[in-house]
Amino acid sequence: MKILTITGYKPMELNIFKHDDARIAFVKGAIEKRLIDFAEKGLEWVLISGQMGVELWAGEVVLDMQERYPIKLAVIPPFENQESRWPEQVQLLYQELLAGADFYKPLYKGDYQGAYQFQAKNMWLVDKSDGCLMLFDEEFPGSNRFFHEAAEKAGDDYPIYLITPADLDEIVEETQMMNEDY
Q: SUPFAM superfamilies from the xrefs (predicted)?
C-alpha cells in the first residue's frame, strides 16, 4: 500500500472539548502504532481532508514520523477556509499542519457551498488512495459513517483498516504499564 487515507471522529464525537485533553495522546498513539506498520511496508503518502479531530491528530503523527520514515502528508480539504468557524486553538493547529504538509489543495475553490462538497471529498479520497485507516466504532458511527459507506462501496479492492475502542483500550493499558507510578 503506497497511499493511505486516514479519517475518524471529530473531537466532540469523542467527548473531547479541549485541545490539550489527555485522551488525544491515546488516539495519536493508536494511529502511530498502525502507521509504523504501514510505513515499514512501503507507505509513501497519507491523505487527510484536515477536519478537526482524528484527521488533524493523524497529520501531527505523520509530521512527527517523517524524521524516521519517508512518508509524506497531503491535506485535501473539501473547500477553502474550512477552519474559519473552528476554535482559535484548532485553527492554529490546522495552519501549522498545512505549513508542514508536503501537499495541500482544496477540492473546491471558495468557502462552503453545500453537502455535495463533503460527498465529493469522500469519493475523491477513496479514489486516490489504496485503502483507509479509520477510528471507527460500528455501534456509534457518527459522522464517520459517510466516509465508511463510500469506502465500502469501493469494494473488496479497497481495504478498510479500523482503529476500534478495543485498540484504544490497549494503547491506554500499554501506556499505563510503561508508567512506573502505575
A: MCP/YpsA-like
